[in-house]
Structure formats: C-alpha cells, structure tokens
Amino acid sequence: MPKVLLIIGEAAETTDTLYPYFRVQEDGFECVVAAPEQRTYQLVLHDRPEGWDLTRETLAYRFAADVAFREVRPEEYAGLILSGGRAPEYLRYDPDLLAITRHFFGSGKPVACVCHGIEIPAAADVLRGRTVTTVAKCRFDAEFAGATYVDQPAVIDGNLVTARTFWDAAPWMRAFMRLLAEAAGRNRA
To answer: Of 116, 130, 139, 164, which residue is the catalytic one?
Structure first.
C-alpha cells in the first residue's frame, strides 16, 4: 500500500489535518503522521467570529504522530500533505522537515498544502516561479518566496496543490488525489 506523509505539529488546524488524513485512506493509501517528535499533539479549531478581523483559536482533538521528522525516509512515500494552523510557524525552522519538503519537490511527487502550510515550502525555497493560493494573511509569505498568489479555492502547479483554508478541502483533496493516483499508476474516474 503506497504511503502518504502528513505533517503536523502543536496547534495544527483540525480540519486541515483530519480531512486529508481520512481522505487518502479512502483511496487505499496509508497515511503516516510526522511531527517534530513521535508523540501526541494538540490540534486546534480556527473560526472567525462575526465582526472579527482575525481568527479565534480553540482547543480541539489530540492527534498522535507516528514518526519524528528525523526518522522519515521520504523516498518511501508517494505524497506529502502540509497541514495548516499555527504549527507551520515553528515547523518551518526544522531542518529535517525542510529536507523532506525539498525531496518531494525535487522528485516531483505530489504535495498538498493548505492555509499556513505554505510557510513550510516558502522556508524550503521551493515556491519560486509557481502559482499558489493560501489563506490571504499568508499571501506575503508566498510572494516573498517567489510565488504568484491567486485567490482561488485550489490551485494546481505541477506536483503542488494548494488551498486557501479548510473550506476548500473538497476541491483541494480532489486534485491531490488525482495527482496521487497518476503517480501511483492508478486509474481514477
């Protein structure tokens, strides 16, 4: 069974994490969760209350990582998912995660990135010349890293599929699953 690597950390957004976690399994891929350490992490919910300019964060589920970044052998995985939430703000400094990210971009394997997840490929310097979408407040990160930002639900640029927020999960994962199926030599209707 081909494996997909899902990146999380403390304060990863719940829907950004759980939707792809279950979605890839529906199509027969094993989903392996990676984080700074092999332990349980606190996920969060983000919503924007009426009249607020920023999101509010509340505690959500706890979610276990199967493997630490330093133990990941990226050549064993068919695809990579970069979850959103606040986790990417500190994960982008992890040298092992940056090496993993560069492997997927360098080998052309499918990468799915949502919301603040864009901060990780931006830090890995793999966005130059690409067209992406992300949550509007991360537009600067994408453009500063050399990407062109567009405000669309999901954008495919080569092996990269980006989405703004969890509200775009359906078109985001639909596109990513097509890329995974093609990479794994599977036919999809």
So the answer is: 116
Cα(60)–Cα(79) distance, integer angstroms: 26
| 178 touches 184 (CB < 8 A) | no
b (16+ CB within 10 A) / e for 161-176: bbbbbbebbeebbebb
Tokens 């890329």, residue located = 179
116 is catalytic: yes
Residue positions counted in the chain: 189
Pairwise CA distance, residues 59 & 184, whole Å:
36
pTM greater than the 0.90 cutoff? yes
Could you give the number of structural domains in the chain?
A: 1
d(CA 20, CA 50): 28
Which structural domain, as residue segments, surrounds residue 116? 3-183
- What would the pLDDT profile of 29-70 be if each residue is shown by its tens digit? 999 999 999 999 999 998 888 998 888 889 999 999 999 999
User: Quick check: is 135 in a domain?
Assistant: yes
